[in-house]
Each structure stands twice: as C-alpha cells, then as structure tokens.
Write a structure and sequence with these properties.
With 496 residues, the chain is mainly β. Helices cover 4% and strands 54% of the residues. A 16-stranded antiparallel beta sheet has the order 2-26-25-24-23-22-21-20-19-18-17-16-15-12-11-10. It has a five-stranded mixed beta sheet with strand order 3-8-9-6-7, with no helix packed on it. A two-stranded antiparallel sheet has the order 1-27.
Length: 496
C-alpha cells in the first residue's frame, strides 16, 4: 500500500559528548596576557583517495567524505570483548534505535533519526548489504570482522543512493599488516553459548593478507515467568524459551598489493552461514519454524593515486544471499537473491580549495523464491557528482547530486551542505537534501501469506535538513543539532 499523506519529524538531539580523535596541531599552550590573539587556522582540503583501502584512515579522511554531515565512528577493535554483536555497538551512537526479535543470533535491524529500518543503508566496506526486502539483519554480521563502524545520520541519498533516507552505516573490515601474526580466541557462557575466533595476517604473494574464521552457537533456552491467566491474580508460571537456538560460522579474506606506478589492487571475500530457530512471541510460540541462511560477498578494486593529478578507482562486487525457511506454511522453501555492480570513480583538485568527485556505476539484481510464481530482476545505474569548495576563508560548501535508475524508477537525490568556522573551536553546520528508496522485490512482486504485492508502488521520498553547532578540540567533540524530515509515499502494510 502507498501512503500519500506526508509526515514530518522534528527533534533536537545532543549528538555527541565524548572522547574522539579530532584533527589538530600541537598541544595548546596557555596564552600569556600580552600575547596577541592567534589567527584562525585556514581551511585545507585533506588529501584522500576516493576510498581508503589501506591502514586505518585519520579523522580528517573520514570527514572528507561527508565534511558537513553528522558522522559518528565506533572503533570496534578498541572495544574487543565488550559487545556481543554489531548491533550492541551501534546502540552507543546518538540517533540509532535498535529493533530486536529475540536474543543472541535472532534478527536485528536499526533505525536512524526515526526512519524505518528499510530506510537505512548498511554497507560492508562500501558494498550494500540490504536484501530483497530492503532490510539488513545485523545479527549476521559478527564484530570479529570489523575494525570500525561509520554512521552518517541524515539523508544520504546523494552520496550512497537508494535506501539511505535516514542515513547510512558503513562496516569497515579489519586492517592489513605486513607483520606476521596469529590470534585465537575462545569463549563460553550460559545457555550453551560458545564462540571461537581465529585470525591470521601477514605478507602473502608480495602483498598483505588477512584471514578471519569465526563461529558461535547458543541454545537460547532461558527460563522466564509467564502469566497463563491475565486478569486473574494467579501466580506466574515458569516456562523455558523454546526453538530459540542460533548457530553462526563464516570467514573473511582480504588481500592488498602495490603494483608500482601509484597502482594498488585489493580484494575481499566474505562467506557466512547461519541457522536459527524462529521462536515467536510468548503468547504464540512457534516450535517448528527454522531459518537457514548462506551469504557470499566478493569484491575487487584497483586504485591509482599519484602524488599529483586525479585519483582514479575501479571496483567490481557481487553478493549472493540464499535462505531456506521451514515451518512457515506456504512461505516455506528456498529463496535466492543476487546483486552486483561495476563502479568507476575519480577525484581531482581543481584548486587547493576546490575538489570534484565523480562516480559512475552499473549493476543489477535478481530474486527467486519457491513460493513465488515470478523471478523478477532489474538493472541499476547511477551517476553522482560532488564538489568540495571553499569560497571564503572559514566557509566550506559541499553540493552533491546523484541520478539513479532502479528498474523503471528514476531517482534524483540533490544535497547541499555547509560549514562555517565561528572561532578556533566552534563550527556551524547545515545540510538540506532529498533521498529516495525504490520499492523492494518483496513489496513489488512476491506473494506471501497475508501480504499482497503491489507493482504500482512508488519510490519513498524524504526531504530532510539539519542545523547544528559543534565545539571541537583535539580530544573532545560536542554538538547540538536540530533536524527535520518530511517523508512521502511511505510503503506501509495494513490488514484487511
């Protein structure tokens, strides 16, 4: 169903108060009473590749992708052992709301700034992970893979394309090293919980490689108190959670090698398996529903980053998701979803205070399910342009535009951001833009019990803006931001 009534969301958030690594010069010295006030530092555009593929990038390089955006970074390796999964780390970021359907290994999705879960684009090293239904299940992404998590709050359609209505999350895999190393980690807990991790890194074939192996399991059979007769003052009855087990395993392989002449090649392959029970709510337990899933992601990239002149990049990636669902009646059976793309990008400094970035991409996706009479597929293409410009000392302006074709839908995502330096530590930032989400295959074509597809669905559209003030030093950043979002053509589900 398409809801034509636009809805608005306005909120005021305290976005961040904590320690972070902020760019700066030498440690500040207390000024003397007679010393003249130091001039404000001039803006400089940091040198950065189209996408960093080597060591951990600096805060300047991360912010260079979205200089005026509300960005938070969680260093996963610095929090090793303190979070059971990726979703738990994301809940530490302002504006993030987690939606869980159970305990360990059960489905988890997130919302940014009030947008639905299908309106948040989740990526692994820049590769979109949203499936045929427009959602990403965070329970299938172990923290063992990750070095850090980058979260952009606010419409990201101009930078990342369809699906980034409320923002985008980039999960960055662990870095590479030319020093041989190995690591093994084992852990166990209550209710049959167990996890293991093996990590091998070092020089291989003239380059650097990383191999990660991961496995975890849990029975999930915890006890709980249940009221069999609501409305009566009877004692609660102890029950035990059934069909709530989960089992996950997978591997990640990364490789990078310098080819000389400012050329670098890198590759990534990720394989994941999981199988879990779908227990259902306490009042409607489903002891026979099971969900088994297999995922394969592969990517190869070539970068040319000379000391002077434009930086160029070419990337090809594919992703395959296969699932076997049992115990769901007519919706039981195998499902398969494949997607991939080839992307070319370039960045060039026209002037020390003026940099232009251009990206062109072509791809496609297809879906098949045993319970669906059709096997839909569609092509995708996009062209995006971003300009980082310093028209005046102390003022940064970042206009961006993305034109995207998703099947028969044409999506236009413009955005303008600005940052004004008020003093050495105070900044004023503002953004306004438009984002879209094309209807997913499930919403358009797939027949499921209680859900009728609608081929006439229109893309969801969001117009958003934010205005905030930030105070930054070398070790502390604090900001207050007000944002507003207007959503149109929201895709909703109604019982009838």
């Amino acid at each position: 169903m398409v809801s034509r009534s636009p809805s608005g969301v306005a909120a005021l958030l305290l976005l961040l108060w904590g320690t972070s690594s902020i760019a700066g010069g030498a440690p500040e010295q207390p000024p003397s009473e007679d010393a003249p006030e130091a001039p404000l530092p001039a803006y400089e555009l940091p040198e950065v590749r189209v996408e960093v593929t080597g060591e951990r990038p600096s805060p300047e390089q991360i912010r260079a992708r979205e200089p005026t955006g509300a960005i938070s970074v969680v260093e996963v390796e610095d929090r090793a052992g303190r979070a059971p999964d990726t979703a738990a780390l994301l809940t530490t970021i302002p504006g993030v709301h987690l939606q869980q359907l159970g305990g360990f290994g059960q489905a988890q999705s997130l919302s940014l700034r009030g947008a639905s879960s299908s309106g948040v684009l989740v990526m692994l090293d820049g590769i979109p992970l949203n499936g045929a239904g427009g959602l990403t299940d965070l329970s299938r992404l172990p923290t063992a893979w990750l070095s850090r998590i980058e979260v952009l709050r606010g419409g990201g359609g101009a930078a990342y394309g369809s699906g980034a209505l409320g923002g985008a999350v980039n999960l960055v895999t662990r870095g590479l090293s030319d020093t041989p190393s190995a690591e093994v980690e084992l852990g166990a807990g209550s209710f049959g919980a167990f996890h293991g991790l093996a990590n091998f890194a070092g020089p291989v074939l003239g380059g650097e490689a990383l191999l990660l192996l991961h496995g975890s399991t849990s029975r999930g059979d915890f006890p709980y108190l249940h009221d069999d007769t609501p409305g009566h003052e009877d004692p609660l009855v102890e029950r035990r959670r059934m069909n709530n087990d989960a089992h996950l395993a997978g591997g990640l392989l990364r490789f990078r090698r310098s080819l000389g002449h400012d050329l670098e090649v890198s590759a990534l392959a990720e394989l994941g398996f999981d199988e879990r029970g779908v227990a259902g709510p306490a009042l409607n337990v489903t002891p026979n529903r099971r969900d088994a899933h297999r995922r394969l992601t592969a990517a190869a990239r070539l970068d040319h980053a000379p000391a002077e002149g434009p930086t160029l990049s070419a990337r090809a990636w594919v992703r395959s998701d296969d699932a076997m669902i049992t115990g769901f009646g007519a919706s039981s059976g195998a499902q398969s979803y494949q997607t991939g793309a080839v992307e070319l990008s370039a960045a060039h400094a026209l002037h020390p205070a003026h940099r232009v970035m251009l990206e062109l991409g072509f791809g496609g996706e297809r879906y098949h399910a045993d319970f669906s009479p059709s096997a839909p597929n569609r092509l995708r293409a996009h062209l995006s342009l971003k300009d980082t410009w310093i028209p005046l000392d102390g003022l940064l302006v970042v206009p961006a535009l993305r034109l995207e074709q998703v099947g028969e839908q044409t999506l236009l995502a413009p955005k303008v951001g600005a940052e004004l330096r008020l003093s050495r530590h105070w900044f004023l930032r503002a953004n306004v833009g438009q984002s879209h989400r094309a209807p997913s295959f499930l919403e358009l074509y797939v027949v499921q019990p209680g859900l009728a597809p609608n081929p006439a669905l229109l893309p969801e559209r969001a117009v958003s803006g934010d205005l905030g003030v930030a105070w930054e030093t070398r070790v502390i950043e604090a900001s207050v931001t007000a944002y507003y979002g207007l959503y149109e053509n929201l895709i909703t589900y109604e019982f009838f």
